[in-house]
Automatic annotation (TrEMBL):
Pfam families: GGDEF. InterPro entries: Diguanylate_Cyclase, GGDEF_dom, Nucleotide_cyclase, Rev_trsase/Diguanyl_cyclase. The chain crosses the membrane at residues 64-86, 101-120, 141-161, 173-191, 198-217, 259-281, 293-310. The keyword Iron does not apply. PANTHER family: DIGUANYLATE CYCLASE DGCC-RELATED (PTHR45138:SF24), REGULATORY COMPONENTS OF SENSORY TRANSDUCTION SYSTEM (PTHR45138). It comes from the Bacteria. One of its GO terms (molecular function) is diguanylate cyclase activity. One of its GO terms (biological process) is cell adhesion involved in single-species biofilm formation. This is Diguanylate cyclase. PROSITE patterns: GGDEF (PS50887). One of its GO terms (cellular component) is plasma membrane. Residues 363-495 form the GGDEF domain.
Length: 507
């Protein structure tokens, strides 16, 4: 079971938000907002702020975490002042007071936070980006402009036309809507830029935008009891969770889930559809010519969107084909590189591959050269097919004995080599060589019968600075002595007289 990804105070925050939602359901049934709902709502922003401060301790981006917690503390202060001082006492709040000042501090703090995060946040690797910068900027702006249009039509126009509202009251509420739209646009940008888990933050700000709109249309439009409080509750909770996840994310940022990516890609199209619907409903009051212009304009919009969707689907298909071809090319290249560096019969490294391996290892290492004793009669008596089967079996046994200390290679014919992955002392080398001699002395199956081979082993220690050719020469000279001594034995280059060394003493 995966642990809860947030600090402990987020658990009671979620439970409190759920309890407040249940109280609003009972308020809706009662037809009026119950006092307990207001009291529960009073604690939601306060607990969200405390949980955000607790999240600072485990945050990777402490600056972001502290800033977000401070902003949510401003929000909590504003809510506590307005609810405790006015709502619970059934008093009318002033057009602009301390609570509004804290609201503005909260909004402006979040705007500054998201602007700073957008400049300094980590970017995904270029191959991981699904949208280019102009695309995600334009998509976010389209969504923000249409939300602003919807706010204008549904909330701001009735507010500005209301003769009972003061200029200060109108200005304050217009500023709230503008800041909502700016925050939403910045969060959509952030979601595209670093693909961190910000979807709770997006959902929280969307809930705030919807709640502010419903609050503005509270005059001419009837709102279900407690709906704005429900949106504000979960909006605050979503912001607290979103910022906590954003501040604790590891680098590089995790890819955005496919469902979230799909929603983000769909938002501009939904925004255009919303703009068309606004145009249609507002065009109903026009004359016949005006309505015709509206419908033709909407039709052109729809055709352009269909054309863009078709182009996008074709581009997606072509990108998928290009990705498949690129994967095939990479697979072919890898296969060619593998074949160039590996022996086709045994699958071990060939001479070129083994030389590259030796050049890549610059530290101390141990080289074992192996040559089979009595292999020539296998080909002469049983044929080359039988000889190939024996060589494959030899390679398998060498690989089994050498793992996990050595990399094995077939240098050609019946000659093999093992290069250690770490330096080995003399007793360890003798132990491996003894095991190789014993294992390769076991009978081999040949055309229903059995035959026995032997192996001679030459060992050489490669100190730092010894070239691959010098190390091969040492091991080859040791192997020569092992063969000349009758085979089936190990000879070590360190025991050779200087006359048989292939490199000057001291190397």
């Amino acid at each position: 079971m995966r642990p809860f990804p947030l600090p402990t105070l987020f658990v009671p925050l979620l439970l409190l938000a759920a309890a407040h939602s249940v109280s609003l359901i009972y308020s809706h049934r009662a037809g009026e907002l119950l006092t307990v709902s207001d009291r529960l709502y009073l604690f939601v922003p306060a607990l969200a702020a405390l949980a955000s401060w607790q999240a600072v301790r485990g945050a990777r981006d402490r600056r972001l975490a502290v800033w977000a917690a401070a902003c949510l503390a401003f929000l909590a202060g504003a809510e506590v002042i307005l609810v405790a001082a006015y709502d619970l006492r059934d008093l009318r709040a002033p057009d602009y007071g301390v609570g509004d000042a804290l609201y503005h501090a909260y909004y402006l703090g979040l705007v500054a936070l998201l602007l700073g995060a957008a400049r300094t946040g980590p970017r995904p690797a270029p191959r991981e980006r699904r949208l280019t910068p102009p695309e995600w900027v334009l998509d976010s702006l389209i969504t923000g402009v249409v939300v602003a249009e919807l706010s204008w039509v549904l909330g701001l126009v009735p507010l500005l036309a209301d003769p009972r509202a003061t200029l200060l009251f109108k200005s304050v509420n217009v500023s709230y809507v503008m800041l909502d739209v700016i925050l939403l646009t910045l969060v959509l940008l952030r979601l595209r830029v670093d693909r961190a888990p910000t979807w709770p933050l997006v959902a929280g700000l969307l809930a705030y935008v919807a709640a502010d709109l419903l609050y503005l249309v509270d005059g001419p439009v009837r709102i279900p009891v407690g709906l704005t409080d429900l949106l504000w509750t979960w909006g605050t909770t979503g912001q607290a969770v979103g910022f906590a996840l954003l501040a604790r994310r590891s680098a590089p940022a995790a890819p955005t889930p496919a469902a979230v990516t799909l929603i983000v890609r769909t938002l501009p199209y939904l925004a255009v559809l919303t703009a068309c619907l606004i145009l249609i409903f507002n065009g109903l009051s026009l004359d016949l010519r005006g309505r015709g212009v509206v419908w033709f304009t909407v039709t052109v919009f729809a055709l352009v969107m269909i054309r863009q969707a078709y182009t996008l689907s074709e581009t997606t298909r072509l990108n998928r084909l290009l990705a498949e071809q690129a994967a095939q090319l990479r697979g072919s290249r890898d296969e060619m590189e593998y074949r160039a560096l590996h022996d086709s019969l045994t699958g071990l490294l060939n001479r070129d591959g083994f030389r590259q391996l030796m050049q890549a290892q610059t530290g101390p290492r141990t080289l074992l050269m192996l040559d089979l004793d009595g292999f020539k009669p296998v080909n002469d008596t049983h044929g080359h097919a039988a000889g190939d089967r024996v060589l494959r079996d030899v390679a398998r046994r060498i690989h089994e004995v050498g793992e996990p200390w050595f990399d094995a290679a077939r240098l050609g014919g019946d000659e093999f080599a093992l290069l250690s992955r770490a330096p080995l002392d003399a007793p360890q080398v003798r132990q491996v060589a003894t095991r190789l001699i014993e294992r390769l002395s076991d009978p081999f199956d040949v055309r229903g019968g059995h035959m026995t081979l032997g192996v001679s082993v030459g060992a050489a220690q490669g100190e730092p600075g010894v070239s691959p050719d010098a190390l091969l020469g040492r091991a080859d000279a040791a192997l020569y002595l092992a063969k000349r001594g009758g085979g089936g034995q190990l000879r070590e280059a360190a025991a050779l007289p200087d006359a048989l060394r292939t490199d000057p003493p001291g190397q």
